[in-house]
Amino acid sequence: MDDILCAGCGIKIQTENENAPGYAPPGALKHNPVICRRCFRLKNYNEIQDVPMTGDDFLKLLSKIADADALVVYLVDIFDFSGSWIPGLQRFIGKNPVLLVGNKNDLLPKSTNPNKLKNWLRRSVRGLGLRPVDVLLMSAEKNHGIDDVMQNMEYYRNGRDVYIVGVTNVGKSTFINHLIRQSGNGDGEITTSHFPGTTLDFIGIPLDDGHMLYDTPGVVNLHQAAHFVSEQDYGEIMPSKEIKPKVFQLNEDQTLFLGGLGRIDYTGPGRRSLIVYASNALTVHRTKLENADDLFHRQYGHLLTPPSHRDGLPALKRYDFRTDELNTDIVFSGLGWVTVKGKGARVSAYAPSSISVSVRASIIKG
């Protein structure tokens, strides 16, 4: 059975152990294509089964790319760039050229300048040691910009294989399914979901010239908010349409809560604007700094949601910033960001330790 792979997640099919990855009942082998029970349940019932693979396991699989002669298409999430970055990517892919594609550009306000966004992405990845051959934007979910990505993939691969890489939830499988449908091979679609670790091994799709396009396992980044909330709450923190910025005029010593997962304390100087870029469904609550601790302890999981259920009270990690840009983004990985207007602001950000917080020059001017 070594040559039977799940068409949904790429793992080797086995029929002996129901609790092990790749299990399919013997009768499933009569179907074409063959998918494992995990993918069947995920596709038809939206159920997910845990698999015994860690982030290190996924990275070991990615390291196979270094031995190939191929084009690497690296998908990053524009809504969550910091959470979709793969540390040390270059050493896993060797000397292969990288085409950087920013996905989910439909989520940003329509006023966002695409050329400025591309330049920002290019500067950001160069600062992290990656020099892509080009930077493109698309929305796999809305099927925007995919033709442009396909044309550039064909140009830059120059008759070689293609590997699509990215973290979980970045939209790799949705993008590849568009490619499969456009090739007229809709029966070969791979499993997609917002659950981490949907793809478990390389999935090869033949190209017209005999080379292959590979979907690779999504690297699990545990510092995203998506890994902190339940399936029920996921829809509240993950935008499904264009973000509508929420503008707050804060006086000194006021606090903004991003549900129960993020907190911004503004201590001054003066009165200034803070703009929240997050899911339109996310509750943002303002209070006085002197009341913030008490409010969090009383209303976590109630007024301050998500999470929608209070299951203990998480310890929040504090990050102190003083802005030195005209517009500074305080980023909560996978949750969104808060733009602080003007230089010299004193800001403290809080989040559960499993959600990373960082600062950057604003990606949306104005």
Automatic annotation (TrEMBL):
Q: Which PROSITE patterns match?
A: G_CP (PS51721)
Q: Which Pfam families match?
A: MMR_HSR1, YqeH-like_C
The family database entries (SUPFAM superfamilies) matched by this protein are listed as:
P-loop containing nucleoside triphosphate hydrolases
Gene Ontology MF: a single term: GTP binding
Q: Which domain of life is it from?
A: Bacteria
- Could you tell me which residue ranges the CP-type G domain spans? 59-222
Q: What is this protein called?
A: Ribosome biogenesis GTPase YqeH
What's the source species for this entry? Sporolactobacillus shoreae
Write the lineage as a comma-separated list.
Bacteria, Bacillati, Bacillota, Bacilli, Bacillales
Gene that encodes it: yqeH
